[in-house]
Amino acid sequence: MTDYHPGLDGVIATESSISDIDGDKGVLSYRGYSIEELAEKSTFEETAYLLLTGELPTKTELKDFTAKINSRRDLPEGLIELLKTLPKDSNPMDVIQLAVSSLGTFYPVKFDAEELKANKYTTEYYIDISAGIIGSIGSIVAAWNRIKNNKAYIKPDDKLSYAENFMHMLDDSIKVTPLINRIIDATLILHAEHTINASTFTAMVTSSTLASPTQVIASAIGSLSGPLHGGANQKVILMLNEMGGKENAKAWLDERLSKKQVVWGMGHREYSTKDPRANILTGMVKDLFKEQSGKVSEMFETAMALEEACEERLSKKGVYANVDFYSGILYKEIGIPVDLFTSLFAISRTSGWLAHWIEQVGNNKIFRPTQSYKGYGNREYSENS
Question: Is the dihedral of CA 281, 54, 349, 125 positive or negative?
């Protein structure tokens, strides 16, 4: 009989070459490249290609990959009409999951077990499929934001980068500066991959059944939607609003800790030091407020007071601010609606999920864990008992 590990904690479920974490040192790398270097020097498109293929693209490869993404940014009319039928107050993650799942009907993918076994699917095949899904999901999020607000769908602009085009399609009332575009691009890079978390494991399990890639991504979106995973950045903003101001931060935290309640955006299962992605976003927060002539919102001041209080009380336990804490603040300051925060996470993480899909089907065995049964033994059935 094997040992039971709740949540599969510490269980090695796969061998992967996609990303790596050193939680004690606060290090995250994609395909051997540090997250700091990628966030500073790369773009989301280039990083997505790296995750999918294992190598940084040449100029020609990046141009071709970007063109494939761009070719799917304009959504089919049928998909837009489908979105219009949905209640305006729908949870955006439910909408995105539905829309991504429907992509398989608008763009059918041939994925045959026998052809896979015969190694007939080339790297180019996987790139084509992945680029299409990556291209569509950003437009789906942007389109839904406009449709739910009774605004017209904005067509994509192929002259713009992925991050720039997303902001262009999302909301033309948001003043977008080069710094804001860079922040969006960097957050897409930072959220793109993070080893075997809940949603990635969901994607791997679905991949192992040889389901279509759109269903792989749809299943992962469902997993990401939970507040213990991707939904945490939205909870950060709700938490800060509840606090009522920076002067309440210490008392609010003490009460929270005394009741053993979650402090959203603090701590990470993989890191015993500060999340390296949070370190990067800290600098971006400072850059954003410098651009805004040093003006900071009351919410940002509250967030900084809370982080300081948490460091005083929790740093000895290895609990520090994580990526959700800062990404939520940045998105709020930029003007992105709170209910779309997790959707941006999904846009980014799709590239990582697809990398794991490619890796899983390339050396596949369907997941079938066992259980330790704790129920009744044999019982006799009797009528009207």
Answer: positive
**In the predicted structure, residue 385 carries a pLDDT above the cut 70:** no
Q: If you compute the radius of gyration of the chain from its CA atoms, what whole number of angstroms results?
A: 22
324 is catalytic: yes
> Could you tell me which CATH number the domain at 232-334 has?
1.10.230.10
CATH numeric code, 17-227+339-362: 1.10.580.10
Q: Could you tell me if residue 351 is left (phi over 0), alpha (psi between -120 and 50 degrees) or otherwise beta?
A: alpha
Q: Residue 27's beta-bridge partner residues? A: 22
**320 neighbors 311 (Cβ within 8 angstroms):** yes
- 316-355 pLDDT tens trace: 888 888 888 888 888 988 889 999 999 999 999 999 999 9
371: number of CA atoms within 13 Å, CB side? Answer: 3
Catalytic residue among 171, 185, 324, 356: 324
Catalytic residue among 168, 268, 275, 356: 268
Is 268 a known active-site residue?
yes
Calculate the average pLDDT of the chain: 92
Residue ranges covered by each domain of the chain: 17-227+339-362, 232-334
